[in-house]
Write a structure and sequence with these properties.
Elements (H helix, E strand, L loop, with lengths): L1 E10 L8 H7 L5 E6 L2 E10 L2 H14 L3 E6 L3 E2 L1 H8 L3 H8 L21 E2 H10 L5 H19 L5 H14 L1
């Protein structure tokens, strides 16, 4: 088993209730730190599981079981070149060269703020590209794709994510 670190961003519970933190701990989030910031419940997990998809799906099930509404999973799927550099232990300059296709062709295009100096990229797409170019591990690319799939499923209103996340992870394992 491996320990996976990620955050579940949620809402729907009163952070001022006496049993706020205990509710999560007693409900199965004993491997997480619970906080309330900027109007959101943030549950930072360090969850042991066989795979990232199992870790995330079980955390979502647990958070929902205590009565919270899951909004999304983080780390944030939108990243700047500086974020990519930090996540990959590469320099910001190296990431700029990749983005300008001066080191390799086909770097993913930004998906937000395309015309600004602080463009945002889809982390799952970038991680996949970096994996193909042997700059990040296969596991990093799979984790990014599973977080993206989880967020898309949450946004679409799916309640049961376990099989969906497992299917996505296995498909990417086969592809990489």
């Amino acid at each position: 088993m491996k320990t996976y670190e990620f955050s579940v961003i949620a809402s729907g519970l009163n952070p001022e209730a006496e049993d706020f933190e205990a509710r999560f701990y007693d409900g199965g989030c004993d491997d997480a730190i619970v906080a309330f910031q900027k109007g959101h419940i943030i549950i930072d997990f360090a969850r042991e599981a066989e795979s990232i998809d199992a870790a995330i799906s079980s955390a979502i099930e647990t958070v929902r079981a205590v009565g919270a509404k899951v909004e999304r999973i983080e780390p944030d799927p939108l990243v700047s070149l500086a974020d990519i550099a930090a996540r990959t232990d590469m320099s910001r300059a190296a990431m700029s060269l990749y983005a300008k296709e001066q080191r390799a062709e086909g770097f993913p295009a930004p998906i937000a703020k395309v015309t600004s100096n602080s463009s945002l990229y889809d982390w799952a797409t970038v991680a996949f590209w970096l994996c193909r170019h042997k700059k990040v591990t296969r596991e990093t690319a799979i984790e990014a794709a599973v977080v993206k799939e989880a967020n898309e499923a949450i946004c679409a209103g799916y309640l049961h994510l376990r099989d969906r996340l497992k299917k996505r992870a296995r498909a990417l394992e086969a592809e990489l």
